[in-house]
Input
Amino acid sequence: MKNIIIFGAPGSGKGTYSDEIVARYNMGHISTGDVLRAEIKGGTELGKIAQGYIDNGQLIPDELMINILAKTYDALPAGQGVIFDGFPRTIPQAEALKKMLAERKHEMGVMIELVVDEETLMARLLNRAKEQGRADDNEVTIKKRFEVYHNQTAPLAEWFEKEGIRNTFTWKGSKDLMLSEIFAYLDTLK
Ligand code: AP5
Ligand code: MG
Output
């Protein structure tokens, strides 16, 4: 499978649909949020830096994030395709991803944008807070994450549009429907 960039607001289902896509097409998966949370759990230097940003719902500085991404990508088996979940989130990250892949003679592949209304997003994340207790899943931090998404990340959709790889999927109230629309599209790429 081609590389896939899965893009959307906090709680839009990037992680959930990535798991389904990985199972169906046997690809690699990089969730930058998961990478950072593992660093925090391990008490590493990077984890210590990341924690302050994550707890405040802010983005980790681009330079740091880009280095982590390249290292994580190179550690995966080549040739299977990778889902980028939560990266890129800014124009500099998107430019860096394009360059990093071009240097390896790989392509960005396709972008999948998940569009979900904010009320649904908030309900999902507050529910996950009860089940998993993720540190940034509280109402105050979730609102900051939405704001950061609108101001810094959402404008990036236009960048993908210009690259000619933007594919938008809008939530219509059913996970099965969303998934079957995404699979129907990805099946055409195999
Ligand atoms: P990250 O971990 O990427 O968090 P996020 O973008 O806020 O997104 P989430 O993981 O909360 O949601 P999701 O879209 O994966 O949805 P999910 O499938 O879990 O980033 C966290 C932080 O790390 C950032 O704030 C930043 O500080 C830092 N960071 C990460 N990447 C960075 C980068 N590139 N640059 C700088 N900083 C970076 O679904 C949500 C919940 O909904 C789940 O519990 C799910 O089970 C549930 N759910 C219920 N119904 C559905 C449904 N129908 N579809 C999907 N999910 C559903
Ligand atoms: Mg996630």
In short: The mean pLDDT is 97. The two ends are 6 Å apart (CA to CA). Strands lie at 4-8, 28-31, 82-85, 110-115, 166-170. The first helix runs from residue 14 to 25.
